From TrEMBL:
This is 7tm Odorant receptor. The lineage of its organism: Eukaryota, Metazoa, Ecdysozoa, Arthropoda, Hexapoda. It is found in: Cell membrane. Its main location: membrane. The keyword Cell membrane applies.
């Protein structure tokens, strides 16, 4: 995506006579990137939703066990486990957010270029790419929720909420 953005910036700022062919090539590359993204999104959708719930449940139960640990070794083991579980989920959410940002940023790059100084046919082709890239695609968990940085924060907040409920119900 970054290479496509760089190439489009070069094309839009040049006055080359073969711009139309290069723009068509960039449009084809953009469509290929979108197709690859949608296939990956569909392929990993169920797995991301499963991982969201497993992370939330595991974090909640590990917090519950961690607070009740009397020995130092148990506290260290549970803390390391909890840290790795959250880091593993972060390895899904942060790159997913970056991919969405890159797709959205393409529209901004095109809009801030000098696309309006070229021919009408050129403007129409660039306008098509701008419209396609303004729809911010996010990875989703089974189509129910977006997997992004907000989902990472959501897991942490919900885990602490469920922990508080478990603490009140089971420890009284």
């Amino acid at each position: 995506m970054q290479l496509l953005k760089k190439r489009l910036t070069q094309i839009t700022n040049s006055k080359n006579s073969d711009v139309k062919c290069e723009i068509r090539h960039c449009i084809c590359l953009h469509q290929v990137l979108l197709e690859v993204y949608w296939r990956a999104r569909n392929m990993y959708s169920i797995m991301l939703m499963f991982h969201y719930f497993v992370t939330m449940i595991t974090t909640c139960s590990d917090l519950f066990i961690l607070i009740g640990q009397p020995d130092t070794v148990g506290i260290v083991v549970m803390t390391v486990t909890l840290t790795f579980i959250l880091v593993q989920f972060a390895c899904y959410t942060f790159p997913a957010e970056q991919i969405a940002f890159e797709f959205n940023n393409l529209s901004l790059i095109l809009y801030t270029s000098k696309w309006y100084t070229n021919s009408t046919e050129y403007q129409k082709m660039i306008l098509f790419m701008m419209m396609k890239s303004q729809c911010v695609p996010y990875f989703t968990g089974a189509g129910i929720m977006e997997i992004n940085v907000y989902a990472f924060g959501s897991v942490i907040r919900k885990s602490f909420s469920f922990y508080a409920v478990m603490q009140n119900v089971l420890r009284k």
